[in-house]
Amino acid sequence: MFPKAQWRKLQLFALDPVDLALSKLERNSDRDREDVLRLAQAGYIDCGVLKARYLEEVRPYLLNKHEWHDQTLELWIEMIAAPSSNKPKAST
Questions:
Q1: How does pLDDT run across 33-62, given as a tens digit for each residue?
Q2: pTM given for the model
Q3: Which phi and psi angles does 19 have, rounded to 5°?
Q4: Which residues contact 50 (CB under 8 A, 6 or more apart)?
Q5: What is the C-alpha separation between 85 and 57, in angstroms, rounded?
């Protein structure tokens, strides 16, 4: 796309799918749940990894509302593990 020398020092970083899901935990909007569900359906999110990363990397830094975030995460895990017939339909 560009000559190699032109962007030699440019580094691009992106969130991995689990980081992206954890970043949506606070807001927990319909759109956030759909995004997380789609990432899980595509095989990018494993429930065990999601929960472990939350417990190790997010929960220790929450100042309050631990129960709120814990409950939201559990609901997401249930949503991901539910049979496909119970999953929300995609919005257009």
A1: 999 999 999 999 999 999 999 999 999 999
A2: 0.78
A3: -60, -45
A4: 18, 21, 22, 73, 76, 77
A5: 32
Task: Note whether 88 and 37 are within 8 A (CB).
Answer: yes
pLDDT for 92 equals 45
Cβ(27)–Cβ(76) under 8 Å? no
CB 27 within 8 A of CB 65: no
Q: DSSP of the chain, one letter per residue? A: ---GGGGTT-------HHHHHHHTTTT--HHHHHHHHHHHHTT---HHHHHHHIIIIIGGG-SS-HHHHHHHHHHHHHHHHS-GGGSPPPP-
Q: Which residue has the tokens 């030699």?
A: 8
Q: Could you tell me if 45 and 79 are in contact, meaning their C-beta atoms sit under 8 angstroms apart?
A: no
In whole angstroms, what is the distance from residue 45 CA to residue 11 CA? 25
